[in-house]
Write a structure and sequence with these properties.
Elements (H helix, E strand, L loop, with lengths): L8 H11 L11 E4 L9 H17 L2 E6 L9 H14 L5 E4 L4 H13 L3 E4 L3 H6 L18 H12 L9 E4 L14 E5 L13 E3 L1 H12 L3 E5 L6 H11 L7 E5 L11 H9 L14 H7 L3 H11 L10 H15 L1 E3 L1 E2 L2 E6 L5 E7 L9 E7 L1 E5 L3 E2 L9 E2 L3 E4 L4 E9 L5 E8 L18 E2 L1 E3 L4 E8 L22 E8 L1 H5 L5 E4 L3 E8 L2 E9 L11
Helix pairs in contact: 2-11, 7-8, 11-12
Length: about 550
Amino acid sequence: MDLPTPSNFIEEIINEELEAGKFESRGNRIAVRFPPEPNGYLHIGHVKAMCINFGVKEKYGGILNLRMDDTNPSHEDESYVKAIVDVIDWMGFKYDRLVYASDNYDRMYEIAEKYIADGNAYVDDLSAEEISKTRGTLTEPGKESPCRTRSPEENLRLFREMKDGKYPDGAKVLRAKIDMSSPNINMRDPVIYRIAHVSHYRTGDKWCIYPMYDFAHPISDAIEGITHSLCSLEFENHRPLYDWVIEKAGFEKPVPRQIEFARLNITNTLMSKRYLKKLVDEGFVTGWDDPRMPTLAGLRNRGVPPAALKKFCADIGVAKGYAVVDPAQLDECIRDELNATAERAMALLNPLKVTITNYEGEEEIDFEMNPVDGKNAVRKIKFTGTIYIERDDFALVPPPKYKRLTEHGTVRLKGAYIIRCDEVVIGDAGEVAELKCTYFPETRSGSDVKSDVKAKGVVQWVDAKYGVRAEAREYGSLLSDEQYPDQDYAERLNARSQKSYEAMCEPYVAECPDGKPFQLMRVGYFKKCTDGGKTVLSEIVTLKDNFSVKSHV
């Protein structure tokens, strides 16, 4: 059998099983699943699991079910299902079937009754708090419930009464009957069904009992014919229970195999759907797709290319050990992708007026749209005698090795001419209000004319007559620092995670469709969008590794 060369330990396991003929009865067809819970939007932490599962499907020519793990109806909604499907399509991943855990509720109930009949489950009257107290510790065994000795007949009657709605929430649960002295606490008679008089977004009020994740997930895997349940490392201790649930249900072999990998952890990044939902509900962000959010909807809205997220996960690799990744690694992947694909443009986050006193009329300047894509495409930019430059590109008192414009100094305007600052106009508040400059006609970029006028620096500019006023938005982390023990995430929120500036851009940027990304020269990667009829330059990623902390007046 010709098998693909494995690139990680998961693929090594799959190859070994294929070579051993484990799946011959299924035509050697590998089947995996991606099972998000529709209780929120997918975030950056889900991308790794997504890439691993879809990667196995593609590499082995297998099948993948996109399964909504909808067993907790009080927190789930159809809108979340649509959001999940939408971002998976945006990422470019193709699944074979969209399925739901709730598709299997009838079969799960039948299996639960089989457990009871076989003596592998019992109805318990203890409350959740009482069950927790009797579960024991890592060094002490748990205590058996007084209800554990009920007969299968009594348990079956009580379970059916639970299903018929006879009891209120929390009055009874169905527990697997395993081993209260097991060294693995997950095996100490876990709850597999609970009462919840809550309407389900798909099944309505048909059910008032719902299966727990540790029961529903392996059963769904087995029903769907999944060969490998690939999940993050926190489920490693749940694997014996996963195997027990499938075994006692009586599924024919080969049964699914759970394999764990290290989850994606990113420094100083909030990756809990519960906390992210709280940010949305409390209005700290504008929604799940706020550009500061680590959700895939937020990253998409920010302008992050899907290819950059895939490269990020590929660079991290698949490992078993816990690791934390610096967000700068993701930023670098985004830069690499945009550097190759984004057009260049000129914009100013804090414009400073420049009057070229010896220039009359106007002309067009050739501007190279992307110097690295090999297309050599150019566009025309209008140039007149009044322009703006970035305020940070002028210094009255320049620091050492300063290569931009100074009083009586020279600088080259990108694609245009060298100018010399002859006069600095100071405003009423003592600020630099305007620069009076001279240009040198023979220094036009691309000219064959030799000139004795030299300039060490090059700066971007926007023409005053044709430039468009815009709002520039820069984004930082939602969290201000690392987390400390017992520190609530709310104490870490960064009140300055979004900053706005009155900016200017060349008209081409404003004319382009919303969502188009640009590398704004010496500023950063931004996408163009419109808000209330106003042109907005929304930051995708900085040119450098850290969040720009600029001081603008």
